[in-house]
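forwarding from the other thread:

> can someone predict this with NDP?

sure thing
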Amino acid sequence: MSIAVIGAGAFGTALALSLAGKTDVTLWGRDTAWAERRENPRLPGIALPRSLQVTDRLDKIGARTILLALPAQTLGGFLADHAARFDGRDLVSCAKGIDLVTLNGPSALIAQACPRSNVAVLTGPSFAADIARGLPTALTLACADAATAEHLQRDLSTASLRLYRTTDVAGAELGGALKNVIAIAAGAAIGAGFGDSARASIVTRGFAEMTRLAAALGARPETLTGLSGLGDLVLTCTSDQSRNFRYGLALGAGDDFAAGTTVEGAATARAVAALAPRLGVELPISQLVAGLAEGRIAMEHALDILLNRPLKEE
Ligand SMILES: NC(=O)C1=CN([C@@H]2O[C@H](COP(=O)(O)OP(=O)(O)OC[C@H]3O[C@@H](n4cnc5c(N)ncnc54)[C@H](OP(=O)(O)O)[C@@H]3O)[C@@H](O)[C@H]2O)C=CC1
Ligand SMILES: O=C(CO)COP(=O)(O)O
C-alpha cells in the first residue's frame, strides 16, 4: 500500500508524517524548498523522517490512495488543472469548508472533477500540531461506498489515529466545514469580553444551526452529533490552537489578524449565508459571522442582532 498527500500545509504534512510510520507516503507541495531541512515552516518544530518522501512533481505521485489536504477555496482551481491525473484513484478530502464559487463541499468538487474515483472525507477533531506530535485522537472517515469506507478506515488508522467510518459523506463534511463558522463566533464572543456563558450559548445554538443546514442539504442529523460535528465543534470553539477561533478573538477585540492565515470559516460563512435563503433555513449566527467577515456588520452591533431576534421555542 502507498499513500500520497496533496498539499504540504500544516495538516497535509501532519497526516503524511503520521501515516509514514505505517506505510510508504509521498507528500506533494507546490513549494518544497524546505524539504532538505526536513522541517516545514507550516509545521514548525517538527522533524520529518527521511522515510517521508517530499516532492513538488505531481507526475511522481503513483499511489492508489490520495489525500487532498488543500484549503477548500483553492481546491476547485487545483482540480481544474490536475484532476485528470487522479481520476480513478481513491480520493480522500481533508478540507473543511464550502466552496464559495459553487456552494459545494470539497467532496462534490472532487467527484465532479474525477467521476471514476471513489471519494471519501477524513474529518474530526485534529489539530495538525497534535497529530504531528503523535498525540491521540479519533476521526471520521466517510465514503458512500461502504467497502471503500472499510478499506480506507483500515489504511488510514494509525497507532494514534482511531478512525470511525460512516457512509454519510454530506453529514461528515458539513460538520467539519460549519464548525469553523461557529468557532469564529465563539472566538468573537470571548474577544469582545462577553464571557464563557455567551460562548456556551453560541456553541449550542451554533450546533442547532449546523444540524439544520446539514439536514437541509441531505445529511443525517445524527452524524452531526459525532466526531466530525460536535467533536470538532467543541475542540475548535475552546482552543486557541484554532485559527478560526483566534480570528474570531481578533474580530471581537478589534485587533489585527495575520493576513495569509488559513481561516476556512470566513469564506464558508459567506457560502452558508448564500445557501440559507435558497434552502429556507434560519442561520442567524452564521449569517452574522458572514457580515462580520465581510465588514458589513460592526462588532458593536453583533450582540443586539442576536439578542433582539423574536423570542421562540428552543
Ligand atoms: N491545520 C489544522 O490543524 C487542520 C487543518 N484542516 C484542514 O486542512 C485544510 C488545509 O489546511 P492547512 O494545512 O492547515 O493549511 P495551511 O495554511 O497550513 O497550508 C495551506 C497549504 O495549501 C497550499 N496551497 C494553497 N493553495 C494552493 C494551490 N492552489 N495549489 C497547491 N497548493 C496550495 C499552500 O501552499 P504554499 O505554502 O505554497 O502557499 C500550503 O502548503 C483546510 O481545509 C483545513 O481546514 C483540517 C484539520 C486540521
Ligand atoms: O479543524 C481543525 C481541528 O480539527 C483546525 O481548526 P483551525 O483551522 O481553526 O485551526
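DSSP finds twelve helices and eight strands in the chain. thats all i got for now
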